[in-house]
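Weekly structure sync, notes
Attendees: PL (lead), two postdocs, one rotation student
Agenda item 3: pending single-chain targets
PL asked that the sequence for the first pending target be pasted directly into the notes so everyone works from the same version. It is reproduced below exactly as submitted, 770 residues in total.
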Amino acid sequence: MEGDHYEVLSETTRIAGEFAADPPRSIKEVLRFLAGALSFDEISLSFFDSRLKIVTRTISSAGPELFLPATGHQVAALPAGAARKLWGDELAGGELRLPVGADRHPCGILILRPASPAPLSEETRRLLRTVCHQLASLAQAVLGSDNERRQMQRLSLLSELGQALNRAGTVRSVLQAAIRTLRRHTDVACIILRPLLGGTVLGRSQVWTTPAWKPLRVTFLELEEEQSRRALAGKTLLFHQGIGRRSAELSPLPQAMVTAPLLFQNRPMGSLTVFGDHRQEALSFRADRESKRFFVAIGCQIGHALERVTALERLGELSAENDRKLREATLLFHIARAMHSTLRLNELMHLILSAATVSGGGGFERAILFMLNERSGIFQGMLCVTRETASLVLPSEAGTLAWERPVVNTQAQEVQRQHPSCRQVMQLRLPLKEDNALARAITRRRVVFVSRPDSEPPAAAAFAQSQKLAPYACAPLYGRDRPLGVLVVDNPESREEISPDRLRFLELFANLAGAAMENSMLLNRLETAHQDLRETQERLIQGEKMAVLGEMAASVTHELRNPLVAIGGFAQRLNRVAAGAREKEYATIIAREVQRMEAMLSNILDFAKKEMLCFAECPVPQVIEEALALEYDALLRGSVRLVTEIAESLPTIQGDEQKLRQVMINLIANARQAMSAGGVLTVRAYRTILRGDEAVTVEVEDTGGGIPADILRNIFNPFFTTKEGGTGLGLPISHRIVEQHRGRIEVKNRVRGAVFILRLPVRGSDAPFR
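Predicted structure, written out during the meeting:
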């Protein structure tokens, strides 16, 4: 037997030497030889991990394969005795187990299954122990080769992961690239990557699960979220072995999970969690130093990639933000230049609303302007411009030249004013004291956005419904120290909501518009004050002239009246005593002309005489109606058709009703005389603004062909007349009466005739006017 043992040992040494270049093959051939030589059914050698806890690989004498599939068994789970006594041989369950390796550092265990139950002799055991010493060197070579292969796999994984992450351009693509790479190199149950938003909030995770583990996806996410919070809080790796079951209904979970923080310069960017078992080659779940370094390297690579794409995204957002600000600044510059192209308030209002709605400007689909009357506390609709009508003022085909030379002519303004939406807006009145978005914008001095117009208070909701407003914004228009009005914008066609960026642009736009309107209003006030001063000066001069003329006229009239009375009386006596017909005709002519001269002298005396007006509550519609009633028969005889357009709820003004009726009769009579062949007389009355205060406008328009320009400027001068037999005092007297009411009267030529326009303030002067 000793000779046989010697031969067995010698043959074992020879076989080990023959396959020395391939340690696993050498071990398998040795095991095969031993099984045959010593009559064992099977001999296998199982390798341990560095901590002697896991069986990593097994080589058996049976079967053609070199290595048996890895089981991942715990060493503690090996049959009884192996775990308790690794460095002592033991026969248990019919198997003999012998440690392989140094006494305190075994690298594996040799398991022998005898063909017969007969006990082994002590010599055979010694022989096997000697063989185990020979196998130890081969096993160390196999383990060394395994470590090198594992290192290469890990390096390959890290290299491919780095390349994949470098190609990713977004956070989502980084996470997807990392999962794809880990899947190619490992056979894990589940991979979960979760970014950290703002350094504090866990973002939406990217999850991949093998089909076999998909039923446990929710459980994986619950475990992952819990472990991720801990790993990110401590900035450390977390290994969790033996997860077990989460509930009785579910299948057992994978054996282990690892959660690694994704760090960039020690700043957490997210977390990586992997579920798997111990059969992994590249991705080890053992909490040894190499595995920790490997997971830290993966976390750092993904963390760096997240930081890179996050920085790129921030850079892109910053660049886009700067581009948007540059475009807005350029646009506001163009708009400011356009606003400075005119100082007339009416033109400026059309230009502001057109700039807000034109596609290359503000870009809103509709803009509405409300002016605020602070004294009455009423918002009055002034103008509405749509994108369609805005192109009349700022044509898109003109490009940037449109901003340098806006077309704010009379025709474009008239088209915008006559648009149905604008005519509807001009009828609107909104109280400042009511709860509406316009009032809130003025009170808060900032843009107010209404996302749901139907949820506003009843009055405001009715206003939005009448105008079919989409989600709209109200921008206050402020001058230097007072509110001027509100600019309302919306997108009624697309129903698109106004974004916060657009609201910020609208605020800047409204500031520009408010400043431009304030300048225009100041200029208008200056011009008005200058005009008032000039008119006052002219009136004073005219008053002095008229006073002198009146005194002289009164004196002359008085001196002429007495002789005229005598001439008239003698002419009548002569008519009665005249014998011939010719004498009677001459006397009649003298008497008639004397009467005409007496009437003319009476008018001159009336014009020269200073009269006291009696101010009282004066309803304008009633004054118009009474004047028309007096002239009604004359209008019928002259084939003049009457058209009246009297607005409802006209305010009662302070005035002298008798004098104002005289003015209306004079204007209606002049219009009738201008239409000698018949025509249309139109009388309008509506609310208006005079010198910033509420007023009533009355228009008397005829179709008599108009007044020649050379006559138009002298029409209010005393004694200027084009009518045969006229005194030239009717219009001057009317002009003086209107001025005594602090009003204005003007005359214009229109397409078919002339129109006299009276503007009378609602509140007249408290003091009597002479």
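Discussion points:
- Residues 659 and 737 are 7 Å apart (CA to CA).
- Confidence is low (pLDDT under 50) at residues 79-88.
Action: rotation student to compare against the earlier draft before next sync.
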